[in-house]
Amino acid sequence: MGGKTMMILIDQREVRDDDGRPVELRRRSFNLLMLLADNAGQVISKETLIDGNWPNVTASDESLARCISDIRGALGVKYRHNLRTFPGRGYLLEGTKTEAGNGVRLRCAEGAAESARGAEKPSLAVLPFADMTGDADQAYLALGIADDLIVTLSRIRWFYVIGRNSSFAVRKEDGDFRRIGRELGAHYVLAGTLRRDGRRLRLTARLVEAETCRQVWAGRFEGDLDDVFALQDRIARDVTLAIEPSLQTAEVEKARKKRTDDLGAYDLYLRSLPLFHAYTREGFAEAETLLRMALRHDPNYVDALAALADCVGRMALNGWRDDIEKAYAESCSLAERAVLADPEHPAALATAAWASAMFGEKFERASDLADRALALHPDTPAIRSYCGWVFVYTGQCQRAIEQFEAARRLSPLDPRSYFFLLGLAGARFFLKDFEATITLARRIIVESPAHIIAHRFLAAALALSGRKEDARIVLSRILELQPDYSLEHARRSRMGHDWMMTLWIEGLAQAGLPEHEAHL
């Protein structure tokens, strides 16, 4: 048969990519893929999949969804479309059975290979950690931590993790990262050492750009050996949380150095991120242009779809679009396209949940999407934050606070920390904790003086706490930033309960916001 294929070899219990390399999966996820492959072309119910993969064990839909997400991540952008979701029915694996019936061939959909090349995802190899304990019986720890890191990092969709068998087989004694990267086809290499001091385990790790041997990140982690498996899980989570932003920063810098006429969808997406994070009208407008260019390269690029949905929605929230309702509708449409392109993608789920609540008035769907995103990606700060906003606007303010606080713990130096603080300010406002709202809003404004939404919360909270003069001073700044803002405009906000809208309008009215736009 012409063309490359991914092969699922049922009898040998192997999965091989289109270059013949083994594909790594967690045991439960691997078993689930084998069950789907054995029944390729048939819709298998969730109940059948759960019973077949978790016999004599009570398993939840979330456990199944996590395995499905793992499988799609392992199949990659070129093949994940072969695993189809049938809402309310189950899942189907599309593929062609071999003549002997003991294997399944998966093919790229038309244009998928080009899309994968256009996305230009970076690749990362995780090497076994060098065991410095001197105890051969403890060597399993170094391998176990590297194994856990490969699985955990593989859940992040925007880069590719080299399989365990390849990473563990490469010669690494000389520490030649340039050679290791070349042999594995990896842009970045993660390596480190493991030391034991009594019942304490210390791990040092560093992330290196293979081509230049430049150190991108380094960190140190430690913990007690009382529960080895819990320690492995925690180290894998903590290292992943530390690595991802450093890796993204390195990729942004590489994209900035490329010639404008040599930019692909991935580069354009990366270039939009610092503009987005600057949170200015000009920055958002330029980010929007770059993201639309990225989607012209690849209309199904999930990260770009989700980012553009966010960008368009935020511009509307800040009053930076002429047709607010049209922008709200476009934000929802882009977010839904992202979910259709990849139903388990963290950014797609979280952005769709946020847009459904903020702009679509689909509060039940928003809550369902948020719950799904949190079940699949509980350790991603951005997911916690977007879902926190869903809970703010559906009136679940205490639950919202839990999400924003978790996001701050997971990423204390996040470049979008203002997003966490603003969410906390919003939740505290609707809990009528106006003093906390004032403190939080002022912190945001110190970091971002043109943040209109922070000014709105500050003005409303000051007015409702009896400080009318202070509120009017803040209101004058709001009208400098957005001269057409009015109570009529404020009522366009979507909120899950009438009492929330009543409180919001009351605060802004007491601050002196006019009913209608002032015509100059």
Automatic annotation (TrEMBL):
Record-level Gene Ontology MF annotations: DNA binding
Top-rank taxon, per record: Bacteria
InterPro entries in the record: OmpR/PhoB-type_DNA-bd (IPR001867), Sig_transdc_resp-reg_C-effctor (IPR016032), TPR-like_helical_dom_sf (IPR011990), WH-like_DNA-bd_sf (IPR036388)
UniProt cross-references to CDD domains, sorted A to Z: trans_reg_C
Entry's Gene Ontology BP terms: phosphorelay signal transduction system; regulation of DNA-templated transcription
Keyword Endoplasmic reticulum belongs to the record: no
Alphabetically ordered keywords of this record: DNA-binding
DNA-binding region coordinates: 1-95
SUPFAM superfamilies associated with the record: C-terminal effector domain of the bipartite response regulators (SSF46894), TPR-like (SSF48452)
Location of the OmpR/PhoB-type domain: 1-95
Any Pfam family matching the protein: TPR_16
Protein name as annotated: OmpR/PhoB-type domain-containing protein
Native source organism of the sequence: Metarhizobium album
